[in-house]
Write a structure and sequence with these properties.
homodimer, four-stranded antiparallel sheet, alpha+beta, DNA-binding, 10 helices, 8 strands, 202 residues
Chain lengths: 202, 202
DNA sequence: CTCATTTTTTATCATTTGTAAAATTTTGTC
DNA sequence: GACAAAATTTTACAAATGATAAAAAATGAG
């Protein structure tokens, strides 16, 4: 079986991790899914690569096939990490995607990463043409919205110590994969404070 | 001129504040907008009324025509206000809307309020039928997402004092309309701390 | 394996923020 | 306008967090 269209051989030939990723958002009819996949290509970048830049209107969004990334913002005083992305997560500059404006964040690869790349422009064209893809895009935004709301609530309702424990429970792998300085920043405390919290747990 | 369909006379007869509210999200073709408005009705509730409840899967969403509301969550220790809504804002339990699950929040009316009410079920039906409404729903989620992200960033990047000043500048009316205890909670500090911040500004 | 570099922890002190209680101001009702 | 209730500010003290520096541990290159 061959798949027609602009899809790369690379993408067509390997066991497909993309389909479940797309369907997790919203179950698409086969034709709509194919139409979308025509515009998706796979890319790899090395550890340390800056995938998105705060001073730029980004033109692409990414799905993480393999690897881990962090989003951070530069402030006059220091640098604040406010998001980690792992396998299955979506990397978007929301400001670019929604408002065509510069975002807040740089996104840095903390590992060598394999990514699925998709042009925002192509996606928006599809939204106007295919009701299933329009609803897929709706669910994409809605699911990110719930996740973002959960992060906001966690931050507003829980102390840094509680949030660290929450992270330990829900995502123990993250703490193995990411250095504690970034995690402290993510929790909104200094690395010294995080050390104190960790010391209390022993 | 008469408008056919299920729209109430009340809604049809008054100067329409609803159209601009709907179009601000995403400019709809006339037919799609009419299809949507058929399911929207206007309701009023008094100050103190609890519009959404944390322990309930909510079935409706609301647009605020007139008035001001707050969302808060009950914690074992106390009550945390984490959102204010005013004219033009949308009141949704995102967990109910997106995942059909209980949310975190009660929403209390801080004034007598006029609201536009819309059943989530009806809206979701429309999303499957009309690509323009599907894209309207997409933009609704996307715009709320950017707003939520901005609240998260504000909270993570700025001190309570900075955030109070930001609020003073961007939304001075809010501070007039809402008691400071709620605003302190919203800023993530005690009322005593907020008093200290306000005292320093004089 | 060893050394240099980076990351994490520990210790000390200064600052900020919270808690509790009292004093003051504002609001709403009769 | 006077009173009661609610909201806000002030004060004093306690607890938590940050800044800085130094020690310890972990990581990585040769």
């Amino acid at each position: 079986m061959t798949i027609q269209g602009g899809m790369s051989d690379e993408l067509a030939n390997q066991p497909d991790l993309l389909d479940p990723l797309l369907d997790k958002i919203y179950l698409l009819p086969a034709l709509s899914r194919l139409a979308l996949k025509k515009y998706i290509r796979e890319v790899s970048y090395p550890k340390g690569y800056i995938l998105l830049r705060a001073d730029k209107v980004e033109t692409d969004i990414y799905f993480i096939k393999k690897g881990i990334v962090r989003a951070y913002a530069q402030t006059p005083a220091n640098e604040i990490t406010f998001w980690f992305g792992q396998e299955g997560d979506i990397v978007i500059s929301m400001k670019s995607y929604v408002e065509n404006q510069k975002g807040y964040e740089d996104v840095e690869l903390l590992d060598n990463c394999d990514l699925y790349q998709l042009k925002i422009h192509d996606l928006q064209q599809l939204f106007g043409q295919d009701i299933h893809l329009a609803n897929w895009g709706r669910k994409l935004a809605e699911q990110e919205l719930v996740k973002t709301e959960e992060r906001l609530i966690s931050r507003q309702f829980r102390t840094a110590g509680q949030r660290y424990n929450e992270l330990l429970q829900k995502n123990p792998a993250l703490i193995q994969r990411v250095q504690l300085g970034y995690i402290a920043s993510y929790l909104g405390i200094t690395q010294v404070s995080l050390s104190r919290i960790r010391a209390e747990l022993k």
